[in-house]
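Sequence design from tokenized structure. All designs in this work follow the same two-part layout: the structure record, then the generated sequence. An example of the structure record is given first.
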């Protein structure tokens, strides 16, 4: 959308990518807010923008990419699955426990 030329660097997980970002081996990274927020709050990293259409409640001073590139949006959906045939009792317990854990998070939604 901007014509910026970037090189994709594939990593085997977020941890080595974060290490290279913090050490300056790579110049920027598109990553989840939850993975990098503590580095941003501590000053080790500088957040440039969030990719959602609205600012993050966790980082309200950080603009959206859409503020600079109209129409840009990237959001992430995360799912939790269980094998086919998992008993309704287990599904119910997982649902209760996961929602209880999410209830302790500031940025949570509800899993149904």
């Amino acid at each position: 959308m901007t014509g910026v030329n970037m090189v994709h660097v594939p990593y085997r997980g977020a941890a080595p990518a974060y290490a290279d970002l913090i050490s300056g081996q790579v110049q920027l990274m598109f990553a989840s807010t939850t993975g990098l927020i503590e580095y941003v709050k501590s000053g080790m990293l500088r957040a440039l923008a969030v990719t959602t259409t609205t600012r993050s409640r966790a980082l309200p001073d950080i603009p959206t990419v859409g503020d600079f590139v109209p129409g840009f949006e990237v959001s992430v959906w995360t799912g939790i699955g269980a094998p086919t045939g998992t008993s309704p009792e287990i599904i119910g317990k997982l649902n209760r426990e996961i929602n209880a854990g999410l209830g302790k998070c500031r940025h949570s939604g509800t899993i149904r």
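The longest helix spans residues 88-103. We note this feature because it recurs in several other targets discussed in the main text.
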